């Protein structure tokens, strides 16, 4: 009943011709699962990627956006601009945005509002750092990230929210959370949602896991009951590996 989703975050990789050749390889893959498939090229390649993937069943999504509608924000892109090139979904709150671009929960709450006001879907990322896990503070950190950025929303807004739990210590490190660690946290996230919005909302929201998901560990991670898919970094840059993950359901 919950959507299964596998989204590839290409980060700041691939120029225009590299983007087009990865797309050509993606179009040559066969999907055997029911997962929704998304890829997030860098902003400058969104328009061409959207046109190249139109009708393929692979959705082109954005890695980030600004909360303002327009104005003096040099270098930024708004929700309406993303929509004008065909993008309906945006990743917000990725740990790299939080770490290198100082994105705070408060800023992210504004970005979430702007995306939803433009009828976009949000993949909202959050996750603890290694020190939080070592000090057994990981649930508290995750709970406050979710509450601060999302709990001002009305229950109905969650039909356009996908959550992505990404422990920072597992992103791009080759270190993945064990399937049990992922399941425990996803169950905790669902309980946090249920406490605020009730079981129906909690059970309807897809929660993705991200952090060194690869073809050789995806089946086990995706087999967990509260894991509804993955946000994939490194492995999404190779079409065969990415589709091995898409097909891991
Ligand atoms: C990510 O950047 O969201 C991510 C999960 O990266 P990787 O798969 O490379 O760990």
From TrEMBL:
Its main location: cytoplasm. Involved in the gluconeogenesis. Catalyzes stereospecifically the conversion of dihydroxyacetone phosphate (DHAP) to D-glyceraldehyde-3-phosphate (G3P). It catalyses: D-glyceraldehyde 3-phosphate = dihydroxyacetone phosphate. This is Triosephosphate isomerase. One of its GO terms (biological process) is gluconeogenesis. Its EC number is 5.3.1.1. Gene3D superfamilies: Aldolase class I (3.20.20.70). GO terms for molecular function: triose-phosphate isomerase activity. Keywords: Cytoplasm, Gluconeogenesis, Glycolysis, Isomerase. HAMAP family: TIM_B (MF_00147_B). PANTHER family: TRIOSEPHOSPHATE ISOMERASE. Substrate binds at residues 9-11, 172, 212, 233-234. Belongs to the triosephosphate isomerase family. It is found in: Cytoplasm. The gene is tpiA. Pfam families: TIM. GO terms for cellular component: cytosol. The active site is at 94 (electrophile), 166 (proton acceptor). Homodimer. Pathway: Carbohydrate degradation; glycolysis; D-glyceraldehyde 3-phosphate from glycerone phosphate: step 1/1; Carbohydrate biosynthesis; gluconeogenesis.
């Amino acid at each position: 009943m919950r959507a299964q989703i596998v989204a590839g975050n290409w980060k700041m990789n691939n120029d225009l011709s590299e983007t087009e050749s990865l797309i050509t390889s993606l179009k040559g893959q066969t999907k055997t699962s029911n997962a929704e498939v998304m890829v997030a090229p860098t902003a400058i390649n969104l328009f061409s990627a959207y046109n190249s993937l139109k009708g393929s069943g692979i959705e082109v999504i954005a890695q980030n956006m600004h909360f303002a509608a327009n104005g003096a924000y040099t270098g930024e892109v708004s929700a309406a601009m993303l929509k004008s090139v065909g993008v309906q979904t945006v990743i917000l709150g990725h740990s790299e945005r939080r770490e290198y671009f100082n994105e705070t929960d408060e800023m992210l709450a504004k970005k979430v509002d702007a995306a939803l006001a433009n009828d976009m879907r949000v993949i909202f990322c959050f996750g603890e750092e290694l020190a939080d896990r070592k000090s057994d503070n990981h649930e508290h950190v995750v709970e406050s990230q979710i509450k601060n950025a999302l709990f001002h929303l009305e229950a109905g807004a969650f039909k356009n929210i996908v959550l992505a739990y990404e422990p920072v210590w597992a992103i791009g490190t080759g270190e993945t959370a064990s399937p049990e660690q992922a399941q425990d946290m996803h169950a905790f996230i669902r309980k946090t949602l249920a406490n605020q919005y009730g079981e129906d909302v909690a059970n309807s929201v897809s929660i993705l896991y991200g952090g060194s998901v690869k073809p050789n560990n995806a089946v086990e991670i995706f087999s967990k009951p509260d894991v509804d898919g993955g946000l994939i970094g490194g492995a999404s840059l190779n079409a065969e590996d990415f589709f091995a993950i898409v097909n891991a359901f």
